[in-house]
Amino acid sequence: MSNASITVRLAPHDIKIMDKKIEEGIFTSRSDVIRYSIRHTLSEIDSKEKNLEILAEIAKERKITKEAVRKAIKKAHTDVYREVYGDD
What we know:
- The structure is a single chain.
- By secondary structure, the chain is mainly alpha-helical.
- It has one domain.
- Helices cover 73% and strands 0% of the residues.
- It has helices at residues 12-23, 30-61, 66-85.
- It is flat and about 50 Å long.
- 1% of the residues are buried.
């Protein structure tokens, strides 16, 4: 199977970071960085989707509503914000 070519436009800052990782020997080329990044991102998305399916089943079994989940998430965000930035 041969590879297809695509054009990707990136910010200069991102290219500098890529080039630094290549110089450090972590990657062999810009294409290598991009291929790795795409594979990693797609794998992360798959993993998150599987976890969401599991959580949805648990919520269904326990009769937890979407509204209850939203409230819990909002409370968690508020708690983390207060922990990091104080009560202001």
